[in-house]
Amino acid sequence: MAEFFSMDGYGGYIWPAYVLSVVILAGFVLVSLRSYRHAQKRVADLEANTSKAATTQG
Amino acid sequence: MLIHANPKRFMDLSGRLLPYFSGVAGFLLVLGLYLALFVAPKDYQQSETVRIMFVHVPAALMTTFVYAFMAVASIVGLAWKHPVADMAAKAAAPIGACFAVLMLATGALWGQPMWGTWWVWDARLTSALVQLFLYIGYIALWEAIDEPTRAARAAAILAIVGVINIPIIKFSVEWWNTLHQPASLAKLDGPSIDPSFLWPLLIMMAGYVMFFATLVLLRTRTEILNRRMRSLHMAQVRVGEQVKSYG
Description:
The structure holds 2 protein chains of 2 kinds. Chain A is mainly α. In chain A, 90% of the residues lie in helices and 0% in strands. The longest helix of chain A has 47 residues, at 11-57. Chain A is rod-shaped and about 75 Å long. By secondary structure, chain B is an all-alpha fold. Chain B has one domain: Four Helix Bundle (Hemerythrin (Met), subunit A) (Up-down Bundle). Chain B is 79% helix and 0% strand. The longest helix of chain B has 52 residues, at 195-246. Chain B is elongated and about 80 Å long. The interface between A and B is large, with 31 and 40 residues.
């Protein structure tokens, strides 16, 4: 196990490369998902408002 | 492709594709990471550091691939005035910037143990850094111009002009004397890399491509929703003004 993590003494370069890749890509997915959900909710709210406005006006 | 330039049709199609794309991307990335860390052997020259290749090379591939995608989408946007093409190019840029950062960071982490330096100003590394700046410039240009159609046109021109950097990155290792090694995969006489490294690498590359496909669909959907949000908002403001004038 310790041998696996030490990676022949290169663990200090290899693990940061993998951790950075996973963190940046996963973080990017989370940020993108959040702005997607936010946009979905805003559009749904506005659409509900618009139909309400249309009925009160009509 | 042009058929899907209609936002409504794009929303229908992308909504159906997203679960499959994300599933395939997740599967390939998990399999690729497993092969890269546990199955691939160490290299007789580079020892374990060769494992950095499995995250560095796909990131570098995607740095150029995403930009090429943006350039093609920009041409379609400019020539045929398809709004979805402009939005897809805009949606892709931050993904490309992420890949560029990963390419540079994992490259530095590989360079230090193998070359004895994190960074050199050779042609390959410098042109790769220029690629990151092109992404940042493209994103900044979109942010700087308020009116979407004008922003799309300006950004599209930047994307198309910037494509010149892609062959420079690709051939930099042949045209100039670089510390970076020449190509091992995309060669006319076939890849010069052992199958025990090639397979994990190809699976990671496919995983990165599917990751991009998933994210660009999701982010283009977000762009379409944001535009719909703006037009709904404008419509409500107008309705509000009418109601006021009736009163």
